[in-house]
Amino acid sequence: MELDPQTAFPMLQGQLRPWYAALENPGPAQEQVLEGLLADYAQTEYGARYGAARVGSIDEYRRAFPVVRYEDLRPILKKVMAGDVELLLKEPPVGWAITRGTTGGSAGSKFIPMTATDLKLRVSAGRAMMNYVLATRRLDLFAGVNLNLNFPSVVGMVQVGEREVEYGYSSGIYAKHVSRQTPIRSVPSQQEIDALGGGKAISDWERRFDLAYRLCQDQNVTLVGGVSPTALRFARYLRRTHGVYPKDLWQTQIMTLGSTPGINTEHQPALNGTYGPAAIREI
């Protein structure tokens, strides 16, 4: 994808301006975010129960709303899945996700509702990529493809109200929706990953890694997106199966990976060329 620098850079500056303003004055920015969240909470029965409409500060919010675990919300979420959306959400879910720690669609699975607002916020998280392009003036990032190492977005079916709907892993669902609104193409597509099934066995991941390698080996991979542990497993797969490291195949500019606490320090190469403790354990 070719972009005209005369139009691309001013456009990126405009999209990033609110983020830069928030970084310069984080306190007011956080208060504004809280105000927006409380306005949403006030439209739900859960929020009304704790007086969301009357909360005016972060201290009041901390006093009003209890700290809860997923298990505390499970009874409410079951009712939301049965159709009582307004108990917890201001808008109906566009889908349901499970976490990576969930074993399947059993009664004990941790289901998470995904709304249009949620997905919109995920798209805005691409500002880190936009900031990189603006800072380096490297529009060639968009000339390549995104190596997609996300989990499947479809794993099975779950009963929601009177109908059955698909559910999958949140990372895959985000990738499927966000990729439609970004200028860089994801390979494999999320649909191609989903077609291989939702299994979590080593053989299932071998098939996904084989697909990614076959489709991307001759591509210009400028971006890698997905889950951090999966990306490390993929690197080991390439070395074990094809005798190469990712750096032997691609000149990647950015890796947008998650699911590792402290990822910036855990997986950052040290000055002497060694790696952090997590990277050593994974490799």
The level of helicity is: 40-55%
Q: Order the strands across the largest sheet as they lie in space.
A: 2-1-5-4
Largest sheet: 4 strands, mixed
Shape: globular
Structure overview:
This protein is an alpha/beta fold and 283 residues long. Helix content is 48%, strand content 14%. Strand 4 and strand 5 form a beta hairpin. It is globular, with a radius of gyration of 21 Å.
Précis, in short:
The chain is of the alpha/beta class and 283 residues long. The chain is built from 14 helices and eight strands.
How is the secondary structure organized here?
Elements: H1 5-24, H2 26-41, H3 45-49, H4 58-64, H5 70-81, E1 95-98, E2 111-114, H6 116-124, H7 127-136, E3 145-149, E4 156-160, E5 163-169, H8 170-178, E6 185-187, H9 190-194, H10 202-216, E7 221-227, H11 228-242, H12 246-249, E8 254-258, H13 263-266, H14 277-282
Parallel strand pairs: 1-5, 3-6, 3-7, 7-8
Antiparallel strand pairs: 1-2, 4-5
Helix pairs in contact: 1-2, 1-7
Features:
283 residues, alpha/beta, 4-stranded mixed sheet, 4-stranded parallel sheet
